[in-house]
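Final report, Chapter 2: Outcomes

The project's central promise was a pipeline that accepts a single protein chain and returns its three-dimensional structure in a standardized token representation, suitable for archiving and comparison. That pipeline is now operational. To close this chapter, we reproduce one record exactly as it appears in the project archive, with the input sequence first and the structure output second.
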Amino acid sequence: MVAVKTPGMSTLDVPENRLLIAGSWQSPASGEALPVLDPATQQAFHHTGRATAADVDAAVAAARDAYDGWSRMNPSDRGAILGRWSQLIFQHVEELARYEAQDVGKPLSDARTNIFIAGSILGYFAGAADKLHGATLPSRSPDNTGFTLREPLGVCALVIAWNVPAILMMADAAPALAAGNTVVLKPSEYAPMSPLAIAALAAEAGLPPGVLNVVTGLGPEAGQPLTSHPGINHISFVGSSATGRAIMASAAKNLVPVKLELGGKSPNVVFADADLDAAVPAILESIVENAGQNCYAGSRLLVEEPIYDEVVQRLAAAMEAVKAGPWHEDLDMGPLVNGIQHERVSGYLQGGVASGARVVTGGPGGGDGWFVKPTLFDRVTPDMPIVREEIFGPVLAAESFRGAREAVERVNATPYGLLVSVWTNDLSRALRVTHEVRSGQVSVNEFANSAIIGFPFNLAKESGFSQGGGYEAMKEYTSEKGVTIKMRPLD
């Protein structure tokens, strides 16, 4: 095996140009490799396998062969294996964090947090593996008994994005595996390293060969053959709305259920009575964390008129203090993940100015990598692309409002519905806004809470539909079977 050459890497190596199929590292059928680039230097630090439809066939076949044994295993034993895997992730946090940080370009401390979250998700579902159950139903007759069974679906295809790959992998793989399914995972070609390394630890934990397979490669060459494969029984996808629609159309041909986590345009809604000392740092973090490359990023700022100027000034000053650099310097923010994303975000910066918005602070970045400064626009209008469309970068559009009714109207004016963060000390107002906004998640006086155990990553509108790693996520990877029994009289 060829180790990834990162500072301090020691015990957990991922081989070059290999796929993980049926429990072993295999060369792709094409024989070709894809470079994995460090976004801070634009230089390749690894090469991963370029899977084809033939590799997807092999991975699905391996998952199909492993399904009977895994699905029929004592669920407590399944949970024990997943629990050991979780503990191995915690034991290798530093190595895994280095993979994810260099892959995506994020600061090392942020990547370390992502790995902890991934391990915690897996540990949660390890404990839930033997707690999935049906229901006993009432009967109109004493001669009849009815109940339901929860059964795994079969082979699950997971196609994830590149921004938080370890978390996205576990949000789908953990509940799918805990429920008794087998998995074929396709990570993004831009960030495959932490999923490959985490999957390699599964075998050490005792996961049987073929239960989890990882095929790396390009969307048309590996992703499309996987999501359209007749041997797949469920599809989970994290990515753009356009690709999500294409996957739904493909799944419809095979009548396969789909889980979609798509885009977002999440607002922070700040009322005049809000605690700005708490709100401003959280708003800053919501747009600069991972360089704004999060579906839930707080890319809209709605501020009640009396405090609008103060919030904009304080936030601009906070943005100007953000330090950006390569992953190993562990600063406040890293670069964008690749040249495509850099060009996209730069286009929104130019378009915002051209449409009449004012740049309060920020703009293009410098250096050799794909850097963009944290950018704050104001004097925006609701019809501007920087207000309505997902940018996926550290770009924030600020606008003022008068009263809660107008705030709700502004929140609901975009096609997305992922997260709304409400800042107010008025509990009645907070609850009213919570009920009126169309969003899968609402946070009050915080942003994107991670303290609630089993909290569902719910979505609405064009953000998709999912139970996203939450307390009922295993149901998404099972079917419910109804059973009735007509009892004979006692002899």
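Archive annotation: The radius of gyration is 23 Å.
This record, like all others produced under the grant, will remain available to the consortium after the project formally closes.
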